Amino acid sequence: MTGTNHPRSESRRQRDAAGRAGFTIIELLVVVSIIVVLAGMAMAQYRNSVTLASESVLRTDLFRMRDALDQYYADKQKNAPALDALVTEGYLRQLPKDPFTNSAETWQAIPAEADPGNPSADPGVVNVKSGSDRAALDGTRYADW
To answer: From the centroid of its chain, how far is CA 93?
Structure first.
């Protein structure tokens, strides 16, 4: 009775084929854990990219507002009384939103030093900073930029 039709041979082949047809639980766990690790790394990179983009927007907004303050001073020979004056006088179309506080109302206007010759005069705004209390990716505070 040698041949391929022996009942024990067929059942052994069927069992071997059935055992090789699927994945073991260990293989599935390894694949799933690799996917989880890669997804975690991608999410961290995504968050850092979003923060870097917001930091870039903040730098640009600060540069433009400081430039507008300088232009105001060059034109009027005095500092702007408030940040809103930059908009009303046409130096900016609107005050930008701080990307970290998501508000145009949280900018911190830094006043100029008082004029010793005219102590009652409003010193005006000489600089502007972010109103955020968060820290940047490099460790500095946004409010110190």
So the answer is: 24
Long-range pairs for 112-117: beta carbons < 8 A, 24 or more residues apart:
112/79
Which residues lie across from 80 on neighbouring strands? 125
Cβ(81)–Cβ(124) below 8 Å:
yes
Nearest residue to 83 via CA among 54, 126, 34, 27: 126
- Of 26 and 116, the structure prediction assigns the larger pLDDT to 26
For residue 143, give every residue at least 6 positions away whose Cβ sits within 8 Å of its Cβ, in sequence order, or none.
Answer: 108, 129, 130, 131, 132, 133
* 75-113 confidence digits (pLDDT tens): 998 899 999 999 999 999 999 999 999 999 999 999 988
- Examine residue 9 and state whether it is found in any structural domain, yes or no: no
| Residue 40 belongs to some domain of the structure | yes
Asked whether residue 6 is domain-assigned, the answer is no
- % of the chain at pLDDT higher than 70: 81
Mean pLDDT value across residues 50-65: 96
